[in-house]
Amino acid sequence: GLSNLKTVKNALDIAYHQGNIVSPLFAFQLETKAETKIIFLYNITEDDYPDAVYVNASMRDYWTMPLRDTTFGNSSFKVKNALVDSGTSLILLPEKVFREMDREVFSKHCMTTVFSTFLFMIRTKHKDLQMPHEVQYPNLTILTSSLSFNITPEAYISGAYNRKNCILGIDRIANLSLDFMILGDIFFHDKTIIFD
């Protein structure tokens, strides 16, 4: 795989050290258009992305970045680190953070929150389904020391399910002791994420 574990080299590290590619850097680009495409870029150099802003990894063995703050509407949450993971579909938050977001925002617009392994389905209080453009859901904002990432409702709410439910792309990590979030494919939308 393409992990950052120092004990096992990833495939690009091996290819780079064998002289098969010019750089161990790789990147993912995910677009939110109807014809969504995932582009896996490798064999790139720093010159390919001269405006890239680098964030030092906060953990030795994982693609993580230290966080300054996380906001959702009027609420602010202190989460130490974010693991950036192209192998995860959703945004996974510490359970206490998700519960607070649910209490502050989602439960005000929803009859129930149905928990499942991969999705939260939001049932609206109203007869007709309210999509994100009709309800003022806030951005999820993730702040590092140098960058601010806004994840819009259009990104974290993907649409209707059976005309009664909205599929929410945010889940919780069911371990109260963990103090990090996992930023999956939803975070990758409309960005190029470079792994060094």
Could you characterize what this model shows?
- The protein is α+β, with helices and mostly antiparallel strands and 196 residues long.
- The chain has helices at 11-17, 95-109, 153-156, 185-188, and strands at residues 26-30, 38-42, 64-66, 69-72, 75-77, 81-84, 91-94, 110-115, 120-124, 140-143, 148-151, 157-161, 165-168, 170-173, 180-183, 191-195.
- The strands form four sheets. A five-stranded mixed sheet has the order 3-6-15-7-14. Strands 5-4-10-11 form a four-stranded antiparallel sheet. Strands 8-9-13-12 form a four-stranded antiparallel sheet.
- The longest helix is centred in the middle third of the chain and has 15 residues, at 95-109.
- The model is unreliable at 111-130 (pLDDT under 50).
